[in-house]
Design brief:
The complex is a heterodimer of chains A (161) and B (60). Chain A is built from five helices and three strands; from the N terminus they run αβαααββα. With 161 residues, chain A is α+β, with helices and mostly antiparallel strands. Chain A has a three-stranded antiparallel β-sheet. In chain A, a hairpin with a 6-residue loop joins strand 2 and strand 3. The longest helix of chain A is centred in the last third of the chain and has 32 residues. The model of chain A has no long low-confidence stretch (mean pLDDT 90). Chain B has 60 residues and is an alpha+beta fold. Chain B is 12% helix and 13% strand. A two-stranded antiparallel ribbon of chain B has the order 1-2. In chain B, strands 3-4 form a two-stranded antiparallel sheet. The longest helix of chain B is centred in the N-terminal third of the chain and has 7 residues. Chain B is rod-shaped. The N and C termini of chain B lie far apart (58 Å). The chains are: A alpha+beta (161), B alpha+beta (60). The interface between A and B is small, with 7 and 9 residues.
């Protein structure tokens, strides 16, 4: 019987599991959305929501409790200043898990876990990524043209990127 | 070494395998792109789940 055996062990010992979940929750606070396996997403959800509860509390004690769990002081600041105020009129249910498919290699079921209302941040991140790629391709194109102009004589000096 | 006492008939083999058949995944239709997708999952073809885009899909 698996009575009173709730929770996720994730095949790790206690310290390994605690470190993994702290790492994931910190990333989630910073990025607002992370892709991981469904089991890990479900295991980290209670912690993700607990952090928001601490953030809504807003006291110095709560801030220290959050700092004791999150691995990054910047994440604590973001949690209290940006993330928690978004959920003023909501009691729990701050996260969403969207199953996305299966990982190549071990067929592990994958999911996104995200804080509600992170769509704007995702859009901004998408735009930033597109800009970066555009910049990089433009730079590569320019470098290739310069190579072309030199007629391949200085082949050794073009390996900057 | 222990060995089988009797010949294993074809019937015995196929009787054992009678319950080994695989079943097809139950797919549903994506309301956005009308491709077939797994239920309760974001559509792998268009990246939509519940009327909004949730992920990027690499275009070929």
């Amino acid at each position: 019987m698996r009575h009173r055996n709730a929770g996720y062990k994730l095949g790790r010992n206690t310290s390994h599991r605690r470190a993994l979940l702290r790492n994931l929750v910190t990333s989630l606070v910073n990025e607002e959305r992370v892709q991981t396996t469904v089991a890990k997403a479900k295991a980290l959800r209670p912690w993700a929501e607990r952090m928001i509860t601490l953030g809504k509390n807003g006291s110095l004690h709560a801030r220290r409790q959050a700092a004791g769990y999150l691995q990054d002081p910047a994440a604590v600041a973001k949690l209290f200043d940006q993330l928690a105020p978004r959920f003023g009129d909501r009691h729990g249910g701050y996260t969403r898990i969207i199953k996305t498919g299966f990982r190549r290699g071990d067929s592990a079921p994958l999911a996104y876990i995200e804080y509600l209302g992170s769509e704007k941040t995702q859009e901004a991140k998408k735009q930033k990524r597109a800009d970066r790629i555009e910049k990089r391709t433009a730079a590569a194109k320019k470098a290739a043209e310069e190579m072309e102009a030199q007629g391949g004589e200085a082949a050794g000096g073009a390996s900057e990127s | 070494m222990p060995n089988p006492k009797r010949r294993h008939s074809k019937r015995r083999t196929s009787t054992r395998r009678a319950h080994d058949s695989l079943s097809a995944p139950s797919l549903s239709e994506c309301p956005n792109c009308h491709e077939r997708k797994l239920p309760h999952r974001a559509c792998p073809h268009c990246g939509y789940y519940r009327d909004r885009e949730v992920m990027e899909v690499a275009e070929k």
